[in-house]
Design brief:
A hairpin with a 4-residue loop joins β1 and β2. The protein is built from six helices and two strands. α1 runs parallel beside α6, α3 packs parallel to α5 and α3 packs antiparallel against α6. The chain starts with 38 loop residues before the first helix and ends in a 5-residue tail after the last helix. The protein is mostly helical. It has one domain: dinb family like domain (Four Helix Bundle (Hemerythrin (Met), subunit A)), CATH 1.20.120.450. A two-stranded antiparallel sheet has the order 1-2. This is DUF664 domain-containing protein. It holds the Pfam family MST.
């Protein structure tokens, strides 16, 4: 089993820009067209691209590689990030109302990272959880036409919640860049 301290050689499939992991023409996130019109479509476009980036960072890895931890004492792994983002998608729905909170997806605090183990069933469940929770949060937020509407006990604006989602994915995609490079040398983009 490789350790994170075993530095892999950097690798890329790019031929045009060897400091990237794929050429721009092969990047499914690359939209050479006009950017979306309006605030909500722009936020949704960024969120979609970051979600795709996380998936791309995990592509081609087995359960052991996905569950591989960064450096002690951190419990961070790519699989942990997938589970964490499923957990926070669920939690964001709690911000929309004053009622009873949805239970934590993985039970106790930090179980999203701590229980991210090298088991294909755990990997498959994590991806299913993420897709389900993303769809549920997307649907819940679609009910609000006014991005300035304030909701929940904290009176958070829908706009702020949307921006926070983009920020959460962006931050964790940065972590995923480093984790992936430590696993097999694949460089970030």
């Amino acid at each position: 089993m490789a350790r994170m301290t075993d530095a892999p050689e950097r690798w890329t499939q790019a031929t045009v820009y060897p400091d990237m992991w794929t050429d721009p023409d092969d990047d499914p996130r690359n939209s050479e067209g006009v950017s979306p019109d309006g605030e909500l479509p722009t936020l949704q476009d960024f969120l979609t691209n970051y979600r795709m980036t996380l998936r791309m960072k995990c592509e081609g890895l087995d359960a052991e590689q996905l569950a591989r931890r960064s450096v002690p004492p951190s419990t961070m792994s790519l699989l942990g990030l997938v589970r964490h983002l499923a957990e926070v998608e669920r939690d964001w729905r709690n911000w929309l109302h004053d009622g009873e909170r949805l239970p934590k997806l993985y039970g106790r605090r930090d179980a999203d990272f701590e229980d991210a183990v090298a088991d294909q069933a755990v990997v498959d469940a994590a991806y299913a959880d993420l897709e389900r929770e993303q769809a549920a949060t997307d649907a819940a937020l679609a009910a609000f036409a006014d991005l300035g509407e304030r909701v929940g006990k904290d009176g958070i604006a829908i706009r702020e919640l949307l921006v926070h989602r983009v920020e959460e994915y962006a931050r964790h995609c940065g972590h995923a860049d480093l984790l992936r490079e430590c696993i097999d040398g694949r460089v970030g983009q």
